[in-house]
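A.,

Following up on our hallway conversation. Structure tokens first:
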């Protein structure tokens, strides 16, 4: 199912927690999975939300590769392996994830030039002041060295901080974390997010008024229940 431009733009305008709130109502089975369950370091908390299609890969850094690394094959996958914009989701397979950083000034600029908008990894990043400033990164840690870092494979399912991702999944990310969005539920998520916003505004506005009390909470709840 293709995602139309209006729905795509509406999803980008939302933050990731709101996406999660709406998704768990649209699809109650998604309340406990499909998002990261451990925290990330966010390289650019000031950037807006990112919405893009997953490219997946797995890396190692602790030991030298046993075979020649196919860097051109990897970059070809990033450039041509599916719809754009993309987000690269990389699972670090080392027993100590983040031993070596795959991400810094060079790879952020190369990936951004190939249509990739950001990164999600349990591994490490570096060169924080020199990376592509529009390339969002959610990572397990910051590390100064690349050690023996190399791509092991790409296009395979990965799990990063508890979030399972397959190639071409639709992913929403911001400074809070990331969530996989079922494309067939995207329009419903947008509509539900609008309803959630209207309900929450009633209670928040009430809480800002002088003399706010539990009675006002009860009244707000009644008004909120009328929004369907």
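Then the amino acids I'd put at each of the 228 positions:
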């Amino acid at each position: 199912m293709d995602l139309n431009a209006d729905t795509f733009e509406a999803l980008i305008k939302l933050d990731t927690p709101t996406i999660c709130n709406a998704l768990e109502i649209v699809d109650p089975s998604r309340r406990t999975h499909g998002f990261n369950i451990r925290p990330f370091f966010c390289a650019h908390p000031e950037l807006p939300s990112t919405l893009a299609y997953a490219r997946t890969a797995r890396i190692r850094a602790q030991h030298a590769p046993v075979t020649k690394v196919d860097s051109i094959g990897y970059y070809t996958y990033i450039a041509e392996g599916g719809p754009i914009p993309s987000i690269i989701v990389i699972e670090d397979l080392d027993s100590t994830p983040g031993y070596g950083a795959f991400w810094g000034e060079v790879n952020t600029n190369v990936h951004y030039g190939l249509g990739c908008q950001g990164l999600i990894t349990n591994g490490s990043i570096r060169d924080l002041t020199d990376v592509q400033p529009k390339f969002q990164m959610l990572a397990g840690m910051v590390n100064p060295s690349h050690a023996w870092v190399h791509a092991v494979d790409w296009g395979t399912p990965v799990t990063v901080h508890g979030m399972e991702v397959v190639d071409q999944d639709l992913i929403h990310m911001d400074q809070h974390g990331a969530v996989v969005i079922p494309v067939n539920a995207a329009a419903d998520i947008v509509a539900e997010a609008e309803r959630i916003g209207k309900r929450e505004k009633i209670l928040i506005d009430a809480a800002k008024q002088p003399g706010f009390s539990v009675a006002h909470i009860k009244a707000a709840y009644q008004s909120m229940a009328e929004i369907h």
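Helices lie at 5-12, 16-26, 71-80, 105-113, 186-207, 214-225. Curious whether your intuition agrees with the design.

B.
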